[in-house]
Amino acid sequence: NAGVMQNPRHLVRRRGQEARLRCSPMKGHSHVYWYRQLPEEGLKFMVYLQKENIIDESGMPKERFSAEFPKEGPSILRIQQVVRGDSAAYFCASSPEGRLNTEAFFGQGTRLTVV
Amino acid sequence: DAKTTQPPSMDCAEGRAANLPCNHSTISGNEYVYWYRQIHSQGPQYIIHGLKNNETNEMASLIITEDRKSSTLILPHATLRDTAVYYCIVRSLGGATNKLIFGTGTLLAVQP
């Protein structure tokens, strides 16, 4: 059973470009969480999604950031018009449906560098 | 979600037990205690979780006090590869969201 897969592992974008980060949850998992880790800082919750639904986006910046988890395919975190302050590691986690007291498994992250 | 308090850093000699404390005095009845760790530049790794009973798995043991206001993660025989930031998280399950809220954690440095 493959773990949570994130791609790309490293992404370089120029200021003003768009960044798309992908997360494929573990097989059988329908809950996805995105976190951001700025350099030398802790993990900050961004958004929690279930298939086709955003459940909690309380940690998402109000502008330029969006997330989706379609019925088919990976979850996508999209950052429009990137700025240098968006440079960070973005981690995705997944957990299974129907079992609340369970662990969430994390991917290895996408490291975004804005130049 | 209840907040947690952890020491910012700890040292442990290789081969000895590492005991990492966590205070969660405002924990409520439906909140679980989770432990994760993050080895430098990697994704967080699940270690163990519990509600009120002590738990043990192949990685660690979790000791939760009877009043549930604090807990200790025990790595029985620490190795150099256990050097990481360890996060104690109190997670409220049910309701609209099951997110994990990470604090600043404890940087465990295992010394040779």
Number of helices of chain B: 0
- What is the number of beta strands of chain A? 11
Instruction: Work out the helicity level of chain A.
Output: under 10%
* Helix-residue proportion of chain B: under 10%
Helix/strand class of chain B: mainly beta
What is the overall silhouette of chain A? globular
**Biggest chain-to-chain interface with counts:** A-B, 24 and 24 residues
Oligomerization: heterodimer
Structural account:
The complex is a heterodimer of chains A (115) and B (112). Chain A has 115 residues and is mostly beta strands. In chain A, 0% of the residues lie in helices and 51% in strands. In chain A, the strands form 2 sheets. In chain A, strands 2, 4, 5, 6, 9, 10 and 11 form a 7-stranded mixed beta sheet that branches. Chain A has a 4-stranded antiparallel beta sheet with strand order 1-3-8-7, with no helix packed on it. Chain A is globular. In chain B, a hairpin with a 5-residue loop joins strand 6 and strand 7. Chain B is globular and about 40 Å long. Chain B contains no helices and 9 strands. The relative contact order of chain B is 0.34. In chain B, strands 1-9-8-3-4 form a 5-stranded mixed beta sheet, with no helix packed on it. In chain B, strands 2-7-6-5 form a 4-stranded antiparallel beta sheet, with no helix packed on it. By secondary structure, chain B is mainly beta. At the A-B interface, strand 4, strand 5, strand 9 and strand 10 of A face strand 3 and strand 4 of B.
